[in-house]
Design brief:
With 315 residues, the protein is an all-alpha fold. It has a domain of 152 residues. Helix content is 60%, strand content 2%. Strands 1-2 form a two-stranded antiparallel ribbon. The two termini are 29 Å apart. This is Flagellar hook-associated protein 2 C-terminal domain-containing protein. It comes from Chitinimonas arctica.
């Protein structure tokens, strides 16, 4: 159904009088209920179709969160009636305030999607850096000196920690990427690679932990125990090299897959891009139908990510 048709269907029913049905007692549907259904269909079908993937970042979340002020656009249809004199309201609607609140929510989601696109694009770039960091570890051989092995492992843990810290705030509750599956899976996959106990198994080792590389369960940061590494090099040098080589290959492969076509990050970016352009292409008709809505007021990291999107991707 078109944007314009959402209200037309409701108001056609509003202007018709009740009449007996075939059984003698039925009447036409209540106009408020009808408009609520039409509005719900718009949210769940038209907008929801743009972001079919599961997750809190999808467009169908338009129907799952409340706009500023705590009012639910659908609930408002059967509640108090707003004054049509309010700036930005569409007085032709059965409930102008409900339409206004709906547009406020769309404005907010538009900003969120742009910010998510910018941050997820940054994560994609950083994943390429982590892929390269893992690849460098593959250069370690039995002939590589102890100090060089230690330095390379330390550099890897440092770079990994930068990656974690760069996006940690984004992934916390209320963060730009909170609930975004593509971001969650990316961090989880790289962490699990470091924690895998089967690397080097053929050489008597139990993963990177035997080399002193571990993940703190609270901070999620990596660290290198230099004494444990020195002991491992002294007791089973070939095992250390085999473990690093094994880890390097799997880590690089994981990072590459996360950034591959049709996988988590690129798929989510494509979904966000569709949603952003849908709202941009239909903003005029949406505002004509529902009212102007409150402009989104992003702050902090959300505002920074939005600015990054507008610098790099706004055409």
């Amino acid at each position: 159904m078109s944007v314009k048709g959402i209200s037309e269907a409701a108001f056609l029913q509003l202007n018709q009088a009740k009449r007996p049905g075939a059984a003698g007692g039925a009447s036409l549907p209540n106009a408020a209920d009808s408009f609520a259904v039409q509005l719900a269909q718009f949210k769940t079908q038209t907008m929801g179709a743009l972001m079919s993937d599961k997750g809190a970042s999808s467009v169908d979340a338009l129907g799952g969160s409340k706009p500023a002020g705590g009012s639910d656009p659908l609930s408002a249809l059967t509640g108090s009636r707003a004054s049509t004199a309010t700036t930005g309201l569409n007085p032709a609607l059965f409930d102008p305030q409900a339409g206004y609140d709906m547009m406020s929510l769309i404005n907010k989601k538009d900003v969120n999607y742009q910010a998510q696109f910018a941050e997820l694009s940054e994560m994609k770039t950083h994943l390429l850096g982590m892929q390269q960091a893992g690849k460098y570890l593959g250069d370690i051989k039995t002939s590589t000196g102890d100090d060089a092995i230690k330095a390379q492992l330390q550099e890897f843990t440092t770079q990994y920690n930068r990656w974690v810290q760069r996006f940690d705030g984004d992934m916390q509750a209320g963060g730009v990427l909170a609930g975004t599956q593509a971001a969650q899976v990316s961090r989880y996959e790289l962490e699990q690679n470091i924690k895998n106990i089967f690397y080097g198994a053929k050489s008597g080792m139990h993963g990177m932990a035997d080399l002193g590389v571990t993940i703190d369960p609270d901070t999620k940061l990596a660290s290198l125990d230099a004494d444990k590494l020195a002991s491992a090099l002294k007791g089973n040098r070939q095992g250390v090299v085999d473990t690093v080589q094994d880890f390097s290959g799997h880590f690089v492969h994981s990072a590459e897959l996360l950034n591959s076509d049709g996988n988590f990050i690129l798929k989510q970016l494509a979904n966000l891009n569709k949603a952003i352009h849908y709202i941009a292409d239909n903003r005029t008709s949406l505002q004509a139908e529902f009212g102007s809505g409150d402009a989104a007021q992003p702050t902090g990291k959300l505002a920074e990510a939005l600015a990054a999107y507008q610098r790099s991707y706004r055409t």
